[in-house]
């Protein structure tokens, strides 16, 4: 399950723009501002193909990407105009694969599959580096304020504050398939099908059994809802009390990407197709 195909997907905080990966490794930009069929606006080609993307949480027109050749770039996305390159950082031989914005969007962190993290400022200057400190391949990199949280598929979690250089290591009880985070929570899907909810001290505060193995997770910053994609092609949403709001099958196979923002759920197929659902009821758009 860990080797399942994944495509980058990022939904802007206001849900008006979606950046979604495609089989040819371009990043397709969609206008999702109207509650109807999404409209393709442009494509981003970057290096050897884009493997990760993240919208800035404060400067909503700013998008960061990583390409397969190890280069990191930021882009300004204004309306339907062509994307404008803001910063193109040097190609890194260790090839970062994961991306997150820190400190409310002031800094950017990139992490390699082996766990090496670098922090950059908005002008592309490298501010800090942390060497490999994690066992197994990195599954995700998250940001809690100014701290970097790196999770491996073996369940190792490394927490690093680049400003203070304080670090911590935690071990989760099982192999990890997917993760998602919000300002208050980290959701972790294990290979045995369980989903654990952890607080910011990485203490478990709840466990969910989705009924089928979860391959992708997303947490809503607005409502605290958890969205779960399972291996049978179904999507389910649970509210903040973890009551199931709805469940809908959207594909015959597991989705390749999942994102949620401002009441909108975006699901990406392994062929790059986009399905939009309302978070409240799971209604197709």
Task: Provide a compact summary of the structure.
With 285 residues, the chain is mainly β. Helices cover 0% and strands 51% of the residues.
CATH topology label: Methylamine Dehydrogenase, Chain H
Order of helices and strands: EEEEEEEEEEEEEEEEEEEEEEEEEEE
**CATH class descriptor:** Mainly Beta
Low-pLDDT runs of 5+ residues are none
Could you walk me through the main structural features you see in this protein, from its secondary elements to its overall organization?
Helices cover 0% and strands 51% of the residues. It has a single domain (9-278), classed as Methylamine Dehydrogenase, Chain H (7 Propeller), CATH 2.130.10.10. The strands form seven sheets. A four-stranded antiparallel β-sheet has the order 1-2-3-4, with no helix packed on it. With 285 residues, the protein is mainly beta.
Task: Throw out a few tags for this protein.
285 residues, mainly beta, Methylamine Dehydrogenase, Chain H, 4-stranded antiparallel sheet, 0% helix
Topology overview:
Blueprint (H helix, E strand, L loop, with lengths): L8 E3 L5 E5 L5 E5 L7 E6 L5 E6 L6 E6 L4 E5 L7 E5 L7 E7 L4 E6 L4 E5 L4 E5 L7 E7 L2 E6 L3 E5 L6 E5 L4 E6 L4 E5 L4 E4 L5 E5 L5 E6 L6 E5 L3 E5 L5 E6 L7 E5 L2 E5 L5 E5 L7
Antiparallel strand pairs: 1-2, 2-3, 3-4, 5-6, 6-7, 7-8, 9-10, 10-11, 11-12, 13-14, 14-15, 15-16, 17-18, 18-19, 19-20, 21-22, 22-23, 23-24, 25-26, 26-27
